[in-house]
From TrEMBL:
One of its GO terms (biological process) is tetrahydrofolate metabolic process. This is Sarcosine oxidase subunit delta. InterPro entries: SoxD (IPR006279), SoxD_sf (IPR038561). GO terms for molecular function: sarcosine oxidase activity.
Length: 91
């Protein structure tokens, strides 16, 4: 995996300062059928390529970040504050 992550708040930091907390997966609507919720919670495809994950800068600014990276080459394409990403999605 890439050894450096460019935190939007702290600058370039070693990856050991971060905790990976999981992939960014679209959540079903609250009224979705049980089958959709079952797939969301228990059955996920592990597709190869560019993915978004939630990372926590636990040894730095303690902010939640969305890291877009390749799960094949581990190349990091972008790092965005999770709050900014949520505001962008709400538009």
């Amino acid at each position: 995996m890439a050894s450096l992550i460019n935190c939007p708040h702290c600058g370039v930091r070693p990856k050991e300062e971060f905790s990976i907390r999981g992939a960014s997966v679209a959540r079903p609507a609250a009224t979705a059928p049980d089958e959709d919720w079952n797939r969301y919670v228990f059955i996920r495809d592990n597709e190869r390529g560019r993915i978004e994950e939630y990372w926590h800068h636990s040894a730095g600014c303690r902010r939640w970040l969305v890291v877009e990276r390749s799960n094949v080459t581990h190349e990091v394409f972008s790092v965005t504050d999770a709050e900014d990403k949520a505001k962008e999605a709400a538009r």
